[in-house]
Amino acid sequence: MVLILKVLRKNLKEGSRLVDLRKGEAAILERLDLPGEDAQRLMELGFLPGAQISVAHSAPGGDPLVFRVDGSEVALRRETARHLAIKRL
Amino acid sequence: MSTAAHCETHGPEIPASYGTLKTVVLVGPPNSGKTTLFNQLTGLNQKVANFPGVTVDHHTGLASLGEGRAVRIIDLPGIYSLAARSEDERIAYEVLTGQRADTPKPDAILLVLDSTNLTRHLMLAAPILSLGVPTLVILNMADDLKTRAGKIDREALERELGTSVVMVAARSGQGVDGVREFLASHMAAPKPVLLPVLQDVPKCREWAGSIGMSAAYRPPIPPKWTRRLDNVFLHPVAGPAVFGLIVIAVFQTIFTAAKPLMDGVQRLFDNSGAFIATSVPIPWLRSLLTEGVWAGVGSVVKFLPQILLLFLFIGLLEDSGYLARAALIADRTMARFGLQGKSFIPLLSAYACAVPAVMATRTIENKRDRTATILIAPFMTCSARLPVYTLIVAAFIPKRPVFNVPVLSGLLSQQTAAILGLYALGFAAAVLTARVLKSSVLRSERTSFLLEMPSYRWPTFRSLGLRLLDRGRVFLVRAGTVILAVTVGLWITANLPYHHGKPPAIEDSLAGTVGRTIEPVIKPLGFNWKVGIGLITSLAAREVIVGTLGTIYGLEKGADEHSLDLQASLHRDLTLGGAIALLVFFAFAMQCTSTIAVVRRETGGWKWPAIQFAYMTALAYLGALAAYHIWS
Predict the structure, then answer these.
(1) Greater pLDDT, B141 or B253
(2) CB-defined contacts A:B, below 8 A
(3) ipTM of the predicted structure?
(4) What pLDDT is attached to residue B5?
(5) Are B449 and A75 in contact (CB < 8 Å)?
(6) Is a pLDDT exceeding 80 seen at residue B1?
(7) How many angstroms away from the CA of B455 is the closest CA of chain A?
(8) Which residues pair with B452 in a beta bridge?
(9) Which residues of A lie closer than 8 Å to B, measured between beta carbons?
(10) Residue B292 binned pLDDT confidence (cut-offs 50, 70, 90)
């Protein structure tokens, strides 16, 4: 219960995150809350603010996730996807 | 990624007179099919080399243009930008701008882009065109684009980029003549076009998008088969099952399908050895050739089919695109040991050879992750351990099926299970070591995992063939140099000192004396002095022990006329416990001078290779000690 509340509060404060997307769902990337260099690498692979991202697959254990972005499929860990703010479609 | 890479520089000589040849650099993002195009252009005229002082390697080759003309082509590692954050990007930048003393400034650039994912790949065109060097933009996988209903106005793209554009399907060779035409032309510099601020990734992407739009680019429909296959290969239940089946199938094939081929090579050596024995009149020379060179080198060369099969499978997995899925499936497990999916690719390459594996770690940006991966890579069962494992397992483990039930009996023999067990042992040692390292001296805060999933593709015979040729060459060169030298050296020390004009019995020889000197140290492991000699000679390279034992038993055979083969001879010197101890020793020990050398180079000093060697040897000794006590 406490955990759920914590997650809820976190979500309210920070809005939706890429990690919250389920398989088949799509969203628009708003912001990358990552240090410059990590953000640059993601952006080169298509994770740019304004880009449409959907979840294509997940690894058998549920982590990492495979995202469909800018014409290709890129795998990211949940831990990283947690730092990407999205706006749901 | 370059899994089944290369252990050393090799290949046909490329003329040193680069002065008269034009230099052309091949660049492109990962998965753009750059290497396939390189293979098409250069064929067998290529070699692998390292830029001095850094860990980035590159392929160099000659592309023949007809009428005796040729250009030199340098294939750089795949890059997404020239931002110089990683070593790959920094070297690419230096080569392209002519800042490196070891390579001339390029006369032209071949920029390879995937036409099925053009808008994103076009981002790399901005920094490349800004260099002002004559550039040919190559839109690869044009056949895919067409069949998947995508299109592009090539001429409009030429206008937008101010430079020539060709459509190519490198896998089938379609359109490659257009590249040759460009190389044979005077190669004009690009016309100036308006480029975005290169450091601003969103601006670059915007620019690429508008260029694509102006060139009427219509992206292809998604690859249907890739999605269907991923629904199976990444399925929560089917995915890991397929993963496991592939691993078992690969190893089972390596050990069963390779057998007749290996026997064939063995017969070739036996017959030619018998021929030499009858045709060489001088006794000592006969002994050197048959018992020294032939027995030693032959017992190693016979493993060529098995090693080629292993590389064939790794090549198939890599070229088909499955390897990236395997890395994805493995990431969670790797994370548990403090590593990441990117460590998985070097570690998988280490199943072939630790040397390219250690070099492949440079894709890991995090320095501590990289060091940890380098330190555990030699625990993975490399192909040089295979000859040792196969010999001992074939001699001591029965062929019976593990599951003695009708359906399952064909699935797994005890021999295959034993070899798989050794692979698992090496893997366990690696991940446990990683865990210890990552929670102590090499702790790092956050590791990321970022991996593009390429579309599935049929591997081509050409690229698989070139890869196997490359590997076969490296293996045979090693057999012809290091192993030959050690074998001849061993034969000499095994035949000295002479008594009354006759060579000594092997236990009284120089080699035998050395073996018996170290015997007290290895006796607790169940090894005698003969195995001891093998342990010393295999410090050069693991598989040398097989040749050494071949030589020793060859000499003994000569002495007492018993015609025992290597396996039968081993039974006289090793108990089951000793044999298992020997397997465990080889699973853990760092018996490989090439690996020590490459770790020193990659970590920039002797500290890590020294620690690694001491640790692995200690673990090998203790592991063998435990194994011997358990099984005897």
Answers:
(1) B141
(2) 100
(3) 0.85
(4) 36
(5) yes
(6) no
(7) 9
(8) A74
(9) 37-38, 40-46, 48-49, 56-61, 63-64, 66, 70-77, 79-80
(10) confident
